[in-house]
Design brief:
Structural class: mainly beta
Strand order of the largest sheet: 3-4-5-6
Length: 283
């Protein structure tokens, strides 16, 4: 099986096939950085572990960027950094790779399990959904000791930190699965999308966090459920790019806030869409 990376240009609507690579990892993941002319993607190494590789589309050179990962959930390239969420041991951690030096640094500790991230390239800040691994294990153990077998969601928190991981603050904490984070560059707000429980049949809910004042207000989501794989605002803040099932077709769509209509961006006719990443033109 092959994984294919495509590039979609919002201004022209053009979809271009960029690169194909073998599907060898637990979860095929990849993103094209047009400024660097490079594809960042996951591939198994000689030890059968998932690592991040870079393929330069002009030089045709492939380079292995990581050596100690086990699984990778997100890759987000920025101007001088590549941010990723991956496991090195028991938890998923936020990592930062310096493009020039190749040095990797990590945010958080070995008990902090990172669910998802989003970045603001204008302010060079990162937003993180995370929870305590040890507290979650305690909840799971209590679940199986109880006759009722009820699972209580761990406390998820939304954090903000800068690109150097030196200044971290907590914006929001709630006993719900904060599964998607988005940044609206126009309004300088972070949107947190959450479910009361995993695989919930209820519609997801969301809040908008004002980054400056930290005021929180309800945010109305599009009518179709947004799947977990890269949702984000358009550059003008007037709509969302999402993966959803619209008219029984799973695809990437643009949802316009004013018209409340979906426009098809990409539907795979002979495969399955794994993920997409919106890259701001700020770069």
């Amino acid at each position: 099986m092959l994984t294919t990376i495509y590039q979609y240009a919002p201004k022209t609507g053009e979809v271009t096939e960029i690169y194909n690579f073998p599907y060898t990892t637990q979860y095929p993941l990849g993103v094209y950085d047009s400024k660097d002319k490079a594809v960042y993607y996951t591939k198994k190494d000689k030890n059968n572990r998932d690592q991040i590789f870079r393929y330069h589309t002009e030089t045709k050179e492939e380079v292995q960027l990581t050596t100690n990962l086990r699984a990778v959930n997100q890759i987000i390239p920025a101007e001088e950094k590549v941010f990723f969420v991956a496991s090195t041991d028991k938890v998923l951690r936020l990592g930062m790779l310096d493009k020039q030096s190749g040095v990797i640094s990590y945010w958080g500790d070995e008990d902090t399990n990172v669910e998802t991230i989003a970045i603001n390239p204008e302010t060079e800040h990162i937003y993180i959904s995370a929870f305590s691994y040890s507290q979650d294990r305690e909840v799971i153990e209590k679940q199986f000791l109880s006759d009722e077998n009820n699972y209580s969601m761990p406390l998820f928190s939304v954090y903000e930190t800068d690109y150097s991981f030196k200044d971290t603050s907590n914006f929001l904490s709630v006993h719900a699965w904060i599964k998607i984070l988005m940044v609206n560059l126009k309004d300088n707000k972070t949107i947190a999308i959450y479910d009361k429980e995993y695989n919930s049949e209820e519609l997801s809910k969301a809040v908008a966090i004002d980054i400056r004042s930290q005021e929180i207000e309800e945010f109305k989501l599009p009518p179709e459920r947004m799947l977990v794989d890269g949702a984000n605002f358009s550059a003008d803040g007037k709509g969302l790019y999402v993966t959803s099932i619209v008219n029984d077709q799973r695809g990437i769509y643009y949802y316009d806030f004013e018209s409340k209509e979906y426009t098809t961006v990409f539907i795979s006719k002979d495969g399955f869409i794994n993920n997409f990443q919106y890259i701001s033109s700020v770069q």
